[in-house]
């Protein structure tokens, strides 16, 4: 299964690769190493595009007592930081880096009402750079959850990623684990949680969007 954000690109590459294979067959009537290499390269490129836009089906069990991962990837940073866009106070920041080989579907970490959703133009530093959270092209979303209060996550474009897709419009009621958007190619997602959150991950851990438990709040 492929994500809807990739349909146009997949169709375009399928047409281009098909034309490439046909043209090469016409130009090189006899078997040729060059022809084989060019055709193989085109097919590999198409397979990479298909792989990038894959959207594996997942059986997501909503966990009202936990905050789940909004993305597939690796936890590259956990720190206390001053969040200056919305909360204006210290929060616990968990950063998840998505390589070009990870599933790039983003998911809601909690259920609730979207209070805030804003896109920011910015730079394209490498996604694991500490300053990418507030310097890069990004979208910030805050969800009001009845158990945890207000939870923020941020989609961050990387050096290669140039387009962030965000489905979280203000006022929308969302469900934990559902698609919240997509970031095309290498990127990062940050979570900003209350300081009393009980973390269930550490730096270096791999997490799965909609499945992995990131934290639970101190009162649980």
Provide the number of structural domains: 2
Tell how many strands the DSSP assignment holds.
14
List the uncertain runs.
none
Radius of gyration over alpha carbons? 20 Å
Structural class: alpha+beta
Structure annotation, total helices: 3
Describe the main β-sheet briefly.
8 strands, antiparallel
Task: Report how far the terminal alpha carbons are from each other.
Answer: 37 Å
Q: Level of helix content?
A: 10-25%
Question: What percentage of amino acids are in beta strands?
Answer: 35-45%
Describe the 3D structure:
The protein has 220 residues and is α+β, with helices and mostly antiparallel strands. The chain has 2 domains: 4-52; 67-216. The chain has 3 helices and 14 strands. It has an 8-stranded antiparallel sheet with strand order 9-5-6-7-11-3-2-13. A hairpin with a 5-residue loop joins β2 (73-83) and β3 (89-98). α1 packs antiparallel against α2 (33-52). The protein is elongated, with a radius of gyration of 20 Å.
Brief descriptors of the model:
220 residues; eight-stranded antiparallel beta sheet; alpha+beta; elongated; 2 domains; 20% helix
Provide a brief overview of the structure:
By secondary structure, the protein is of the alpha+beta class. It is built from 3 helices and 14 strands.
